[in-house]
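Comment thread on ticket #2218

A.B. wrote:
> Attaching the input chain for the structure job we discussed in standup.
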Amino acid sequence: MESHQILNGKVQLYRRGDSRIWQCAASVGGKQRRATTKRDSLSLATEFAEDWYLELRGKDKSGTLLSERSFALAATQFLREYEIITEGERSKKWTDGHEIRLRVHLLPFFGELGVSKVTAGKVQDYRIHRMTSRLEANPHSRSNRPLVDKPPARSTLHNEIVTLRQVLKTAIRQGWLEHLPDLSAPYRTQGKIVHRPWFSPAEYKQLYEATRAYARDPFHASHKWNAEQVHDYVLFLANTGLRPDEAKNLQHRDVAIVEDEATGETILEIEVRGKRGVGYCKSMPSAVRPYQRLLGRAKPVQAESRREKQRRRREGLPDYATEPPLLEYPQLTDPVFSGNHVKLFNGILDRAKLKRDRDEKPRTAYSLRHTYICMRLMEGADIYQIAKNCRTSVEMIEKFYAAHIKSTLDAASINVRRPKPAARKPQPGRSAFDIEDDE
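C.D. wrote:
> Ran it. Output below, let me know if you need it in another format.
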């Protein structure tokens, strides 16, 4: 192996075997460090090695020289592991979210630090940086949205800290870090619990009356099928508690109309596929009629396209040259709710002045699930059975729903008063002095 020494032997240059490229090595910061010069000329390799060595010495004196694995390396290892290990267990959107949070926010701030330098104080500096840099354009972001003078939401920061924690746990598994620092947010022991947007019984009645009126008399005849679908969508979700994504995945073969043995009522038994995997749901009786309408509603007929209309006119064919297409009805493998009716649903909410709740929070299709849970609690249903039927936990229902429903408070159990002891009365023919003597 050919070798040379420069800077009084502080830097060694060498070539391995038959390689033409020179390598350099030096001891800086109590650790042997190596690098490739990527050059086959000894003079050019010498210049590179001198600059490399002096740069290392400068970083060592300023305290920025890494003697451990960097956060960027741990992040690369985490992304490689996470995508493989969680394949099929986590949605691609959530996996991509880790990569985006690292690329846009975490790596620019922590990337060059060693993993042991990511301390609780540094994480707090990151939170302050995210709260105060909202009006500065992020060069790592690919978003074209205009900057808004609004701090990141609590859930946004929470997700970024979750990604940060996963990277540090990867470093621990690899032996690059001894323990996980405290990543909890100071000055806040518990986040403010707020009521999730829902429709009160009066507002829910106002909503389904508005969707029913629009289904009967839409603005355009071509909107009638969509308007009818939205009306049944509102009634279906508010009487089953399904999440919007679960309703989107629902097919007619997943729904069965049955007679419930316990209540003797006709209900729907639904096999649900969503964020929690496969689960089951038993609906309210009020969901049966909307589903029967969905099952018996013919699919929308494809209107004549512009190109077909032009071709018919060129060929001189009459307006009704062909027979109208036969109506097709939903099959077992068809989705119960096909298409996207978000724009139509939001339009009805705006016209009915129901888009925002008392706290100015916007209502969405998810609010129908919240309405179902709140109404079941108001009717006195068992909270454990509601959690099972909605594929969630009792803790989530108690935290976000039960705390805001007044009917869950039992005044008889709250307004308990300790009975006052009755005053002792002297017996007839005995004086108070005799009673004291007895005592």
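A.B. wrote:
> Thanks. Noting for the ticket: The first strand starts at residue 2 and ends at 6.
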